[in-house]
């Protein structure tokens, strides 16, 4: 592949497309001019995958999907489109067929699982006063406060939605593990990465919010994926 792919960024639970701000700015500095950040509803895996597919379908040319957190489940489900040439996972879920993010979390509970709280409408929140220590302990208090107050809660039922046909079984993959992740157990990330046999895995001393705390390293991994695809 000689054409540089369009980068489509897919956010996870408790955040929106703006969580990619640092990555977007860094990628733009590196000459990536075709960039999109999906804003998913977080109402079900089917809804989120469909929204992502619609974004990918609007791109005329190859697409590299990059998913953070639950966004990894979304790109796993939506990455089957023919113009998707690769998948980059950023501290992300990568379920197999018949697996859900909730099932994976139950098998190896993360450190901050007690800081999740459902509301009366079925949405699941991170307690505001626990957000910094749970989600982004390597960001400033001010940045964490903004993330906590603007968090986009998913419907709790979304945790139980199973992946059908995982795209990582047929598309090249790259994975970033956050060694200090408190939202997905780091050993779960390592396990999911290992079974995909990614072309490259990196491990950062980072929180779950590695996309915000270490955007340069995340963009380095995206660069690696793009260069690898160009050479293959």
TrEMBL record:
GO terms for molecular function: hydrolase activity. Residues 7-220 form the AB hydrolase-1 domain. The keyword Metal-binding does not apply. It comes from the Bacteria. InterPro entries: AB_hydrolase_1, AB_hydrolase_fold, Sec-Metab_Biosynth_Hydrolase. Pfam families: Abhydrolase_6. Keywords: Hydrolase. The keyword Repeat does not apply. This is Alpha/beta hydrolase. The lineage of its organism: Bacteria, Bacillati, Actinomycetota, Actinomycetes, Micrococcales.
